[in-house]
């Protein structure tokens, strides 16, 4: 085989041998550090994609790399057939961070969601006393909880769902943030409501103020478990350790993932109090890799970093700057922006460009961002970013948007300029 050197060489190879389940930006990363990645041609980009917030602490955070290297020299995999000296320490740290009694460790986000759904159903049968096979779980329209067959069964995104049936029954979908609709949907057999506190895949869709506290009250009143999927919104992204705490809410179960692995290994978990988690007994649920010593050591180090509160604080401190610079584009090529912490959804005027085109133009300006449906993009830089560095992102976006907007709004003036 000839030597691969350019971005295109690697992309062509991938195209031939890797399944086409993504349409990736044309950047081939060779090296990454902090908020920066460098491609195989030596170009440097500011990473405002952050692997969908799995890189909240940046690429290769020194404390996390050190924890991983140290653990590599001691033990990496045990399975839960025996114990490791890391699992208990990790679970204790994570339980403390999220304010729950117990942790069930898994690997990917989808597995954590599956685990939470299984716990909720089992709690429904064993504790709430629902008749066999009747458990119902309420989900939100526009949800994204992962890619397994059960999870896509209650997705309303045709891309995620079509041609994968037959679908898992037992789910009812209601409009996101619609408390009366949830109240109406709760019946005798309802065991849980699962939601994202902010819908990341929808472009940082934020429910109106009061929805989360209202849902908390409703779930308590109707003896229904509130399952809060914090896999993308949690662990500092919005300026609080858990996104539901932005409104002072505590859920019954949390699903965590993405940033929990520190950008090094996949680590996910369900957190719950003892009376809920106790429905899981030996042999009734598991994972070969879940809670392995390497994952636990990295996860523990992630918890230690987040316990300082400094990453959450930085996200909270930069929220206003982020919002103000993005809102300045409204009416000049941007229709709407939604910002919480260091997380922004930007709806670009669809007559100017698609989200995909916007992200391709941002690549040329040295910034990586995530294209979503239509003309919406998502910005989510590592929480280690400074205000000055954040301006690089908003300047790059301003540049690509204003350029197109001016060309369309004042065609003669831009024609003369060329
Ligand atoms: C990414 C994500 C998941 C799924 O996580 P995977 O690790 O990709 O399986 C679940 N829920 C939310 C909110 C997510 O953003």
From TrEMBL:
State the Pfam families in the record. Aminotran_3
Q: Which UniProt keywords apply?
A: Amino-acid biosynthesis, Aminotransferase, Proline biosynthesis, Pyridoxal phosphate, Transferase
Q: Name one GO molecular function term.
A: identical protein binding
Gene3D superfamilies per the record? Aspartate Aminotransferase, domain 1 (3.90.1150.10), Type I PLP-dependent aspartate aminotransferase-like (Major domain) (3.40.640.10)
Q: Which GO terms describe its biological process?
A: L-proline biosynthetic process
Pathway(s) the chain acts in: Amino-acid biosynthesis; L-proline biosynthesis; L-glutamate 5-semialdehyde from L-ornithine: step 1/1
Enzyme Commission no:
2.6.1.13
> Which cofactors does this protein require?
pyridoxal 5'-phosphate
Q: What family classification does the UniProt entry report for this protein?
A: Belongs to the class-III pyridoxal-phosphate-dependent aminotransferase family.
PANTHER family, per database record: AMINOTRANSFERASE CLASS III, ORNITHINE AMINOTRANSFERASE, MITOCHONDRIAL
Give the protein's recorded name.
ornithine aminotransferase
Query: To which species is this protein native?
Result: Ornithinimicrobium cerasi
């Amino acid at each position: 085989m000839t030597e691969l050197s350019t971005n295109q060489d690697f992309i062509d190879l991938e195209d031939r041998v890797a399944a086409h389940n993504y349409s990736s930006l044309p950047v081939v990363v060779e090296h990454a550090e902090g908020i920066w990645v460098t491609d195989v041609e030596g170009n440097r980009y500011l990473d405002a994609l952050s692997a969908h917030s799995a890189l909240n602490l940046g690429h290769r955070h020194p404390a996390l790399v050190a924890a991983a290297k140290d653990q590599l020299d001691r033990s990496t995999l045990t399975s839960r057939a025996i114990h490791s000296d890391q699992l208990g320490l990790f679970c204790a740290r994570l339980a403390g961070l999220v304010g729950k009694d117990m942790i069930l460790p898994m690997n990917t986000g989808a597995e954590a969601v599956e685990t939470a759904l299984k716990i909720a159903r089992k709690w429904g049968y064993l504790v709430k006393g629902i008749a066999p096979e009747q458990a119902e779980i309420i989900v939100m329209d526009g949800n994204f909880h992962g890619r397994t067959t059960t999870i896509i069964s209650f997705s309303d995104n045709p891309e995620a769902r079509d041609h994968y049936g037959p679908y898992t029954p037992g789910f009812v979908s209601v409009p996101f943030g619609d408390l009366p609709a949830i109240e109406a949907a709760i019946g005798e057999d309802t065991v849980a409501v699962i939601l994202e506190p902010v819908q990341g895949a929808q472009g940082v869709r934020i429910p109106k103020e009061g929805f989360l506290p209202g849902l908390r009250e409703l779930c308590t009143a109707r003896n229904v478990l509130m399952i809060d999927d914090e896999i993308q919104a949690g662990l500092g992204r919005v300026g609080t350790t858990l996104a539901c705490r932005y409104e002072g809410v505590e859920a019954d179960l949390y699903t965590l993932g993405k940033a929990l692995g520190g950008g090094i290994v996949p680590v996910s978990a369900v957190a719950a109090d003892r009376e809920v988690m106790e429905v899981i007994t030996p042999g009734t649920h598991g994972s070969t890799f879940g809670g392995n010593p390497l994952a636990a050591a990295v996860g523990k180090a992630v918890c230690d970093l987040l316990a300082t509160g400094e990453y959450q604080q930085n996200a909270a401190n930069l929220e206003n700057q982020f919002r103000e610079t993005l809102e300045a584009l409204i009416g000049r090529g941007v229709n709407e922006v939604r910002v919480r912490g260091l997380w922004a959804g930007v709806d670009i005027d669809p007559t100017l460009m698609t989200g995909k085109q916007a992200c391709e133009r941002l690549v040329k300006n040295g910034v990586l961002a995530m294209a979503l449906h239509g003309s919406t993009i998502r910005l989510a830089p590592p929480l280690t970013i400074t205000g000055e560095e954040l301006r690089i992102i908003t300047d790059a976006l301003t540049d690509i948007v204003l350029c197109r907007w001016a060309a369309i709004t004042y065609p003669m003036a831009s024609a003369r300029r060329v």
